[in-house]
Design brief:
Helix content is about 60%, strand content about 10%. The protein is of the alpha/beta class and about 375 residues long. It has two domains: about 20-40 and about 135-310, Multidrug efflux transporter AcrB transmembrane fold; about 50-130, 2-Layer Sandwich (Alpha-Beta Plaits), CATH 3.30.70.260. The strands form three sheets. A four-stranded antiparallel β-sheet has the order 3-4-2-5. A two-stranded parallel sheet has the order 1-6. A two-stranded parallel ribbon has the order 7-8. Strand 3 (about 80-85) and strand 4 form a beta hairpin. Helix 6 (about 130-160) runs antiparallel to helix 7. The chain is elongated and about 85 Å long.
Length: about 375
């Protein structure tokens, strides 16, 4: 069977604990870079957060240079942003954004933009946002995120366990820092759709994490009583079993997001789709990464400190084994005490203590099914 086929069926044994610990160095570097970008460059906040005025001018001839000249004539060119887009009716729009908060000054700029575009003043759509409203939006977003983390911690603690709640919340903070850091580093504009997208991808990241944790609990209940497996081994086994499912879910979720970004934002020039899809794209990738790398590594550290796994590690040492060897070996129930064939698996396939391929694992049951009896014809 090909490697892809074994990955698809969960018949692999990649050394995720070792790989993840190396990737933690990459995460640390990305966190430092993200925090540095946030502190030194700051976020490129839209007018919805800092207050100002947005003009949308329907014109086929108005250029960005002409719009900039209008703003400069009125002393509003500093910090301004100008975008060319199309609306749902395929009408060309020039979107002008400035930090103007005075309504009289805004009305003067509206008139000048209409003259430059050779359209009526009533055709220029003006949206005025006060700085108080922007501060309220920011405060409500932070409050929503804090409440989200609290509810997530309570739910996972009640349905799974508190160690898994901690291991799930830390990756969410990791994803948030990386997403915000990328926005600060590349100076992407932060808009209300961006905030909505970030909260959305936090929920997706949590879903991936819970899937991995649920399989870890199943394997813990199934194998812990044998006294032969550390939690790191069980975690490695769980990741190999759900790896393909995580990849399929992530790729499926990324396809419509990429379609929104390429077709809606780049081809049709819809700014709102660009703001929403960029945040989703970044969040989905970091969410899948943190679920496999960050969450499971933290859980392994916490679970290995439990008394039952401390005893298992000591028992393995007393038998002359190596508790840091996380290769998956299916211990046969008929194996004699003290005998353990630790031969590594070929091409990542699980093996039994006797060295034969563990066909029982293919069927998710203690023993493989009996072959059917041949009937006489």
């Amino acid at each position: 069977m090909s490697l892809y086929g074994r990955i698809y069926r969960g018949q692999i044994d990649f050394n995720f604990p070792r790989i993840n610990r190396r990737l933690l160095v990459l995460s640390a570097v990305l966190i430092i870079v993200s925090l540095g970008a946030i502190i030194t460059q700051g976020l490129n906040l839209s007018v919805d957060f800092v207050g100002g005025t947005v003009w949308e001018v329907p014109s086929k001839t108005l250029t960005q240079g002409q719009a900039t000249e209008v703003l400069a004539k009125n002393g509003a060119a500093s910090g301004s942003k100008i975008q060319i887009a199309t609306d749902a009716n395929n009408v060309r729009l020039v979107r002008v954004q400035s930090g103007v908060t005075d309504q009289k000054e805004s009305a003067k700029i509206t008139k000048d933009l209409a003259e430059a575009a050779k359209v009526k003043v009533t055709q220029v759509e003006t949206n005025f946002v006060g700085p108080t409203w922007g501060k309220t939006v920011t405060r409500q977003a932070v409050k929503a995120f804090i409440i989200f983390l609290i509810l997530v911690g309570i739910y996972i603690s009640a349905s799974l366990e508190w160690r898994m709640a901690i291991s799930a919340i830390i990756p969410l903070i990791h994803d948030l820092i990386l997403t915000v850091g990328l926005y600060a580093l590349f100076q992407f504009e932060v808009t209300p759709p961006t905030v909505i997208a970030v909260l959305t991808i936090l929920g997706y990241s949590l879903y991936d994490t819970v899937v991995v944790f649920d399989r870890s609990l199943e394997n813990q209940a199934r194998y812990t009583k044998t006294g032969n497996y550390t939690f790191t081994q069980l975690s490695r086994r769980s990741l190999n079993q759900v790896f393909m499912r995580t990849m399929n879910t992530t790729i499926t979720a990324l396809m419509p997001v990429i379609a929104m970004l390429v077709i809606g934002a780049l081809y049709f020039g819809q700014a709102t789709l660009a703001e929403f899809s960029i945040a989703l794209l970044i969040g989905l990738v970091t969410g899948a990464y943190s679920s496999i790398v960050i969450a499971t590594t933290i859980l392994e550290v916490l679970k290995e400190r439990e008394p039952q796994f401390v005893k298992i590690r000591q028992r393995i040492i007393d038998r002359g084994g190596d508790p840091t060897d996380t290769r998956w070996v299916e211990h046969s129930r008929k194996a004699q005490p003290g005998r353990s064939d630790q031969r590594s698996v070929r091409a990542g396939e699980p093996v039994m203590a006797g060295g034969t391929i563990d066909r029982a694992e293919l069927y998710e049951r203690p023993h493989p099914p009996r072959p059917r009896k041949k009937t006489k014809r």
